[in-house]
Amino acid sequence: MELRINFLSGVPIYLQLMEQIKHAVETGAVRAGEQLPAIRKVAEDLAMNPNTVVRAYRELERDGMLDLRHGSGVYVSASRTNAAKTAALERAGGILAEALDEVAALGLTEAETRRVFESELAQERERARPARRRT
Amino acid sequence: MNDLVIRAHGLRKNYDGSPALRGIELAVPRGSICGFLGRNGAGKTTTVKLLLNLLRPDAGEIHLFGDPIQSEAAAVAARRRIGFVSEEKQLYPYMTVRQTIRFVRPLFPGWRWDLETKYLEIFQLPEKKPVPKLSKGMRTQLMLLLAMARGAELLILDEPTDGLDPAVTEEVLQALAGLAAADGVSIFFSSHHLAEVEQIADRVCLIDRGQVVIDGALDDLKMEYRRILLVFSADAPAAVAALSGVDHVRTRGRTASLLAHGDIEATLDRARQLQPESVEIHPVTLKELFLDYVKEA
């Protein structure tokens, strides 16, 4: 697992770290049961703050992706479905945020944006329905 | 909030009647790496000297490791637990690297031989070389080695990477990160290099003209602050300057750049009432915060 942090992006570093670990798990670069590098090693290798590494690991533990075993290290937890779901949701958030930025640049108000979004969602539902009926 | 290695309250200091510090507040939790930022003359070195009791404040109080520093005895006791690297990086000019280490080692009962060996190797310091023949980077690394190996709980570093090349800077930052991770050492360091502060600090304290203007956990600041760019159909209205929730505003023609923090959504709603043609939101880097806070006025 190769971790690359952009310290100057303005994005909180612990979020970048979380994102990269999630990506590594999703893509299979690290698998369930495998051990992740210790906090000290990550901090030293990337010359970054150990508390930030701790924060990222703890948040991922809360998300069910990592298992922090006291004294023995950090492991990718066995339940990957949950983790994949979390990652999917996180990704969806990112995609929507980008879309929202684009929409905002069109000069729409929030109310207008919400109307468009809800109408698109409704249309998507409509599109999905006949497809299911056909099968 | 009991476990603060540094706590300063209302620190004031005048030099010849002109105020250098005008009520500095500091709170550095144990185990954190705190970047201490400010322009030249903002009061960084004065603050560091007050922390080390090299200067006495005109007003205010300092607690180190939870105890007030009121007497010389208390200051000496606290200083035993602190490793310090000054901006001047003074060393004994007639000694070699090895002699310097041998000279300093017995002064500290908690000397960490393991760290001495480790950093001699990492920094590749030439042990037989006289100190005056060392490069600036090596001299800094020797000072850091002495400060780290003495077994200090807190390092106070004044511009530790000033004048170092990027490779040496990275080694120094790695050493500091390793020390904080493995030994829970707290680090308080002043710096002009925002990129390295952004890289290694978990907290920042920005002072300007003798006062603290930003203080907090770096990742929280990054979450809290946003740059909002507004483009209007005509010149940006004067009302943008009065928007609540906005810290700083720069207008140029039809565009307005706002630095906002707190409830960004609410601020955006208010900004939209001015009917801009477009609204963009961006994350904020430490450099932007620094420039916005210290450059204005």
What would you note in describing this structure?
Chain A has helices spanning 13-26, 39-46, 50-62, 80-105, 110-134; strands at 35-36, 66-69, 73-76. By secondary structure, chain A is mainly alpha-helical. In chain A, 64% of the residues lie in helices and 7% in strands. In chain A, helix 1 (13-26) crosses helix 3. The radius of gyration of chain A is 19 Å and the shape is elongated. Chain A is built from 5 helices and 3 strands, in the order αβααββαα. Helices cover 34% and strands 31% of the residues of chain B. In chain B, the strands form 3 sheets. A 6-stranded mixed β-sheet of chain B has the order 6-7-8-3-9-10, sandwiched between helices. A 4-stranded antiparallel β-sheet of chain B has the order 2-1-4-5, covered by helices on one side. In chain B, strands 12-13-11-14 form a 4-stranded antiparallel β-sheet, sandwiched between helices. In chain B, a hairpin with a 2-residue loop joins strand 12 (246-252) and strand 13. In chain B, helix 4 packs antiparallel against helix 5. At the A-B interface, helix 1, helix 2, helix 3 and helix 4 of A face helix 6, helix 7, helix 8, helix 9 and strand 14 of B.
Strand order of the largest sheet of chain A: 1-3-2
CATH architecture of the largest domain in chain B: 3-Layer(aba) Sandwich
| Mean pLDDT reading of chain A | 82
CATH topology of the largest domain in chain B: Rossmann fold
What spatial form of chain A do the alpha-carbon principal axes imply?
A: elongated
Which tags fit this structure?
heterodimer; A: 135 residues; mainly alpha; Arc Repressor Mutant, subunit A; three-stranded antiparallel β-sheet; disordered C terminus; B: 297 residues; alpha/beta; Rossmann fold; Alpha-Beta Plaits; 2 domains; six-stranded mixed β-sheet; four-stranded antiparallel β-sheet; 10 helices; 14 strands; 34% helix; elongated
